[in-house]
Design a protein that fits this description.
- The protein has 3 domains: 68 residues, Elongation Factor Tu (Ef-tu), domain 3, CATH 2.40.30; 275 residues, Rossmann fold (3-Layer(aba) Sandwich); 123 residues, ATP synthase alpha/beta chain, C-terminal domain (Lysin, Up-down Bundle), CATH 1.20.150.20.
- Helix content is 38%, strand content 20%.
- The protein contains 14 helices and 16 strands.
- It is elongated and about 95 Å long.
């Protein structure tokens, strides 16, 4: 007896629907293969981004159209793939499975699982490369996307649907900042996608374990193309992650996607383009490298209520060399995104962590999404900090300063200690409001720099215990902060006695 799901039943159904007819098909031949690409002749009807199936079981993606042959990037390659292998057009474009089944999973850019969670059976698929939403489908960025970082949430705010670039030299904490932002979305009904492009396996495992320990895998999908992966998979990785987040966005959900990092992605695209003999441009990158990243990042937006009201915030990461932000790829990404968070190597070496340079960082539209109470308090604090950075330059000359200037410098040094934050320690927005009010009220002016961290920890405990809302008026916050710090000071005196 044949069951409905048995292979024999499927074959019988196919035979029942089969009709005799004239069918035309094209059969090509692999001319050469190597370095992740294949040159194929005999497929005159091939289209860009069409999947080509090879006789040995390999598959490729049409990437370049020449007069007598096509250039394809290999997606899967077997050991039996050689010149002379037959190739066939499929008429399909590359897509990936999407949906809630991907939460907590680690997949490659083709949607295959890389973890031990078993096979994936998504109910829907989405094309990797699609057009970005039209202007009429977009809405203004008006809701905050809290990262849990003191400097970002107060001075460089990010909104839902915003594209905020994280830029800096290698080893300055860019990835740690992005991981903190993902961890901080726990309990906020935000789905996250973390794309790892060309990373070492040790770095990939460390990122996965960090998210697992923090309980962030429940709402996160990781798309991984390791350093040993073929160039084609590294090129497709950000588009695959964007397609996964795109599906949730059009369902009306808020999403956050991290591209770690687009420097490696650009290099992979350059490698493929040079192998396929495309004309090189500046720094040997192809002329359409700007368009490549623009069409990727333009898909991050906030949709209007008519189209579901979902949003996709993007945190692309880009690497600089010796702090040079005017090189080709960084300038491209700066012009595409809505602001940048610049991490400075000198600040990192001096122990100011996270090493965010406030003078070079900006958020062009995040201020519109910032809560009015936070925005008002942060404005006063930022002015003090920038003035302190200017005054601090004069102290290097050893000149004698007026008492008022010395007081402002001491206040700025205290603020610098307050802005420091431990790794993997995202903070609530209520605590952000509390420490801003405490600083603006001068409650930390007489605190020694070495005791600032301890006093902030006491304030954080009080805020979490009280569960006060950020909507409270400033007078209410002022009285609460005064009471909390007085209680913490009294407790400290008792312990000292």
């Amino acid at each position: 007896m044949l069951t409905a799901d048995s292979p024999l039943a499927a074959q019988a159904e196919w035979l029942a629907q089969y009709r005799y007819a004239l069918r035309l098909s094209e059969q090509g031949t692999v001319v050469s293969v190597g370095d992740g690409i294949a040159w194929i002749s005999g497929l005159p009807s091939a289209r860009m981004d069409e999947i080509v199936q090879l006789e040995d079981g390999s598959s490729a993606l049409v990437f370049h159209l020449a007069r007598n042959r096509i250039g394809a990037i290999l997606l899967r390659q077997t050991e039996r793939l050689t010149a002379g292998t037959s190739a066939f057009l499929t008429g399909r474009r590359l897509s990936i499975g999407v949906g809630d089944e991907l939460l907590g999973r680690v997949i490659d850019p083709l949607g295959a699982p890389l973890d031990d969670g078993g096979p994936l059976n998504p109910h829907a698929h989405r094309l990797l490369d699609v057009r970005s939403p039209p202007i009429i489908a977009r809405d203004f960025v008006e809701q905050p996307m809290y990262t849990g970082n003191k400097i970002i949430d107060t001075l460089i705010p990010v909104g839902k649907g915003q594209r905020q670039l994280i830029i800096g030299d290698n080893g300055t904490g860019k990835s740690a900042l992005a991981v903190d932002a993902v961890i901080n979305q726990r309990g906020k009904n935000v789905y996250c996608v973390y794309v790892l492009i060309g990373q070492k396996r040790s770095a990939v495992v460390n990122t996965i374990e960090t998210l697992r320990r923090a309980g962030a895998l429940d709402y996160t999908t990781l798309v991984v193309a390791e350093a040993t992966a073929m160039p084609g998979l590294k090129y497709l990785a950000p588009f695959a992650g964007c397609a996964v987040a795109d599906a949730w966005t059009w369902q009306g959900r808020d999403t956050l996607i991290v591209y770690d990092d687009l420097t490696t992605h650009a290099r992979s695209y350059r490698e493929l383009s040079l192998l396929l003999r495309r004309p090189p441009g500046r720094e040997a990158y192809p002329g359409d490298i700007f368009y490549l990243h623009a069409r990727l990042l333009e898909r991050s937006t906030r949709l209007s209520a008519k189209h579901g009201g979902g949003s996709m915030a993007a945190l692309p990461i880009i690497e600089t060399e010796q702090g040079e932000i005017s090189s080709y790829i960084p300038t491209n990404l700066i012009s595409i995104t809505d602001g940048q968070i610049y991490l400075d190597h000198d600040l990192f070496a001096r122990g100011f962590l996270p090493a965010i340079d406030v003078t070079r960082s900006v958020s062009r539209i995040g201020g519109n999404a910032q809560h009015p109470n936070i925005k008002k308090e942060a404005g006063r604090m930022k002015l003090d900090y920038l003035q302190f950075l200017e005054l601090e330059v004069f102290t290097r000359f050893g000149s004698r300063l007026e008492a008022s200037m010395e007081a402002r410098i001491r206040r700025g040094q205290t603020l610098r200690e307050m802005l420091k934050q431990d790794l993997l320690n995202p903070l609530s927005i209520e605590f952000q409001m509390a420490w801003l009010v405490a600083y603006n009220e001068g409650l930390f002016d007489n605190v020694e720099p070495g005791k600032v961290k301890q006093r902030l920890a006491s304030l954080q405990q009080q805020v979490e215990h009280a569960r006060v809302s950020i909507e409270e008026a400033r007078d209410q916050w002022k009285s609460l902060v005064h009471a909390w710090l007085s209680e913490a000071e009294a407790s400290s005196d008792e312990q000292a006695a």
